[in-house]
Design goal:
Order of helices and strands of chain B: EHEHEHEHEH
Radius of gyration of chain B: 14 Å
Number of helices of chain A: 15
Largest sheet of chain B: 5 strands, parallel
Number of strands of chain B: 5
Shape of chain B: globular
Oligomer: heterodimer
Strand order of the largest sheet of chain B: 2-1-3-4-5
Helix content of chain A: 40-55%
Strand content of chain B: 15-25%
Radius of gyration of chain A: 52 Å
Shape of chain A: rod-shaped
Structural class of chain B: alpha/beta
Distance between the termini of chain B: 27 Å
Number of helices of chain B: 5
Distance between the termini of chain A: 108 Å
Largest sheet of chain A: 6 strands, mixed
Structural class of chain A: alpha+beta
Number of strands of chain A: 18
Largest interface: A-B, 26 and 23 residues
Chain lengths: 532, 135
């Protein structure tokens, strides 16, 4: 728009060639903008075609009418102010205001107003160019709304945005992006600087994708999750980057815009969740295994019950029958009655042992248990037997462990009892406690991050063949005929169950005639006070 | 038909040995009985005396050291012994035990009875028909 005031000589003596006047008239008529002229008092003197289109009034309707016809009542005071400015010789450019159409619509209008001067420089009128900017205003408002929405989203999600111009090797980062990368300076950012912040292990992946996004010929859309060392505190962070590449139409210059999000916490939460799931799964598997174990034990027990508990019962029935058959023979009757009595006693022992076995629960209360006290208790129970058999028992100091007092008592009692029972000469028993090195632990125990104490029960008794070492811990498994060494075959099964209740391990070593060695591993915390 | 039989009873339970012998004493046909207290001892007896070929082996299952199933396998591995009918004589009535010993080559299976009369009846039938018929 021209900034020179239009100068018109007085009267109608316009010294312009006819062609020029016609051309100016054509320009005015064909302009997209409304071009209106008016007197200083605001009476319209000309009204072009666009003015007709924009405001809905024809030229005939408006020429001679006051311009206030198209000014909304609340904007009427603008007119004198504009006229004042014009009177001072000022021009008014791109003055944004509102005007009203013939059918009452309010339009956003941008006005450029120039005074019309006579040859002496006096203002004789006003020329007004009005542009309808209603649509433009609408678009601007929409853009502002979208921007606001975007900013709200960014604020809520801490999403950073960025742009990259590869020609200039220049990054422009939003404040949130800077925060994510930990960049506190205002220095210009280039690819080289950001590259130094990449986690070395992730650098090849990032470089590869960045290069491919630079080289691709089409508009691309890229996603990548990688680690960076945040600049200001050197913290290792996981970030998720998303970017798009655009070609500018005017040039072949590529331009990238993208977002960046710090997902470290999200990732940590996810990992924590996965860890929890894995732990729960492991727990379930453990429960499952222990259920299977207990099922097997039950099955074994049912089998055994059908066998070992039936055996004395069957004998009682058979010998009773024989007593009846031999009622006249007192000696035979007495002999069979004795067998009936001993079978009944055996039955009773079996039932007691089975009860003991089934009562052993791993849910009993664990408490610090001094194994020295346990041993002292047990040995005092065997006082008489030790004296009778002339047994020698050597012990070493024992630790204090977390355990079930009564069960550990039973464990010591059964093992010492075995050593006293399965012997031909005077028993010599050694009981010692050592803390084995990790490598010396049985493979099954090496899986647990746990210290163990190893308690060895060694004797000089009849021993057994090593091939039976595993079997002897099975319930009712007996290696010796009952006639020679009494017992129900539950003792060592009980020991095994007790040790397992304590998450320990029991094993046995022997050779016939060379004594037996029972080795018990129990969890142990060396920081607990050892009472010697 | 042979009139005098010899059987070999392998059982660790001395009471059961006595009951078995008592039952044999009153059978229709006279029968001698040799005993062993477990599988290992039984194999030793059989191997030490090549002339000892019993007509029947009665074998308990649950025994210390070598149990009945292991002993049965050993007998069936031995060319000289594998022809001897082995009859399992056990407290167990578990179908798995019956099935397993059958597969190992046992001829028959007697579940230990609660009455000596019942045992006598089973043994008589067996000696006559070569079949165990449990009451």
């Amino acid at each position: 728009m021209s900034s020179t005031p239009i100068s018109v000589p007085p009267g109608d003596a316009i010294h312009l060639p006819d062609g020029m006047i016609a051309m100016l008239a054509a320009i005015v008529q064909s302009s997209d903008d409304a071009i209106i002229s008016k007197t200083l008092t605001g009476i319209v003197t000309s009204w072009n075609a666009s003015a007709e289109r924009i405001f809905g009034y024809t030229s005939a309707e408006m020429v001679g009418q006051p311009i206030t016809t198209i000014i909304p009542p609340d904007r009427r005071e603008e007119e004198p102010a504009i006229l004042n400015r014009l009177a001072r010789g000022e021009r008014v450019e791109h003055f944004e205001t509102k005007r009203i159409t013939k059918d009452g619509r309010i339009l956003d209008i941008s006005l450029t107003i120039s005074p019309v001067l006579d040859k002496d420089g006096n203002i004789i009128g006003v020329s007004k160019i009005a542009r309808n900017i209603t649509d433009q205003k609408l678009v601007q408002r929409l853009i502002r709304e979208r921007e606001e929405l975007f900013r709200m989203a960014v604020d809520a999600t801490h999403l950073g945005s960025w742009e990259y111009n590869p020609l200039l090797d220049q990054f422009v980062l939003s404040p949130e992006s800077r925060k994510i990368w930990g960049i506190t300076t205002d220095a210009p950012l280039n690819a080289g600087l950001l590259d130094t912040l990449l986690y070395p292990e992730d650098r090849p992946t990032v470089t590869k994708m960045v290069l491919s996004s630079l080289e691709d010929e089409n508009d691309g859309d890229y996603h990548l999750i990688f680690r960076i060392y945040r600049q200001h505190d050197n913290a290792l962070r996981w970030i998720r980057c998303h970017w798009k590449r655009f070609f500018l139409i005017t040039s072949q210059t590529k331009r990238f815009i993208g977002t960046v999000l710090d997902i470290t916490d999200e990732k940590a939460a996810k990992e924590e969740l996965e860890k929890t799931v894995a732990e729960r799964t492991k727990e379930l598997l453990q429960i499952n295994t222990s259920l299977e174990k207990s099922n097997n034990a039950l099955e074994q027990f049912a089998y055994i019950a059908s066998h070992d508990l039936q055996e004395p019962l069957r004998k009682i029935q058979t010998f009773s029958e024989l007593v009846l058959e031999n009622l006249g023979d007192r000696a035979t009757v007495e002999k069979y009655f004795a067998k009936i009595t001993s079978s009944a006693a055996r039955m009773s022992r079996l039932i007691n042992d089975v009860l003991n076995y089934s009562r052993l629960s791993r849910f009993d209360k664990f408490s610090p248990t001094d194994l020295n006290a346990v041993m002292k208790d047990v040995l005092s129970e065997f006082d008489l037997l030790i004296e009778q058999k002339k047994a020698v028992i050597k012990t070493s100091p024992m630790p204090v462990i977390q355990g079930i007092d009564t069960q550990l008592n039973q464990l010591f009692r059964n093992l010492i009892n075995n050593s006293l029972k399965f012997c031909q000469a005077a028993p010599y028993i050694r009981i010692s406690a050592t803390q084995p090195a990790f490598e010396a632990l049985p493979p099954g125990l090496q899986k647990h991050p746990q210290e163990y104490i190893c308690i060895t029960f060694e004797d000089n008794g009849i021993g057994f063949e090593q091939q039976y070492a595993a079997q002897i811990f099975n319930i009712f498994k007996r290696l010796n005929a009952s006639g020679h060494y009494p017992g129900t075959g539950i003792g060592l099964a009980l020991c095994k169950k007790i040790v397992e209740n304590h998450q320990g391990f029991i094993t046995a070593e022997s050779e016939p005639g060379k004594g037996a060695r029972f080795i018990v591993y129990l969890p142990y915390e060396s920081k607990m006070v050892t009472q010697v | 038909m042979k009139q005098h039989f010899t059987c070999f009873l392998i059982d660790d339970d001395l009471d059961d040995q006595e009951i078995f012998m008592l039952a044999l004493k009153d059978l229709d046909k006279p029968i001698d009985c040799v005993t062993a207290e477990d599988g290992a001892m039984a194999l030793q007896i059989l191997r030490d005396d090549p002339a000892f070929i019993p007509d029947y082996i009665f074998l308990d299952l649950n025994m210390p050291r070598m149990d009945g199933k292991q002993c049965l396998s050993e007998i069936k591995k031995d060319t000289r012994l594998r022809g001897i009918p082995v009859i399992i004589y056990s407290t167990s009535s578990d179908p798995r035990d019956i099935q397993e010993t059958k597969q190992l080559g046992a001829s028959d299976y007697i579940i230990k009875q609660t009455s000596i009369g019942a045992l006598r009846k089973i043994l008589n039938t067996f000696l006559n028909t070569q079949k165990v018929i449990l009451p």
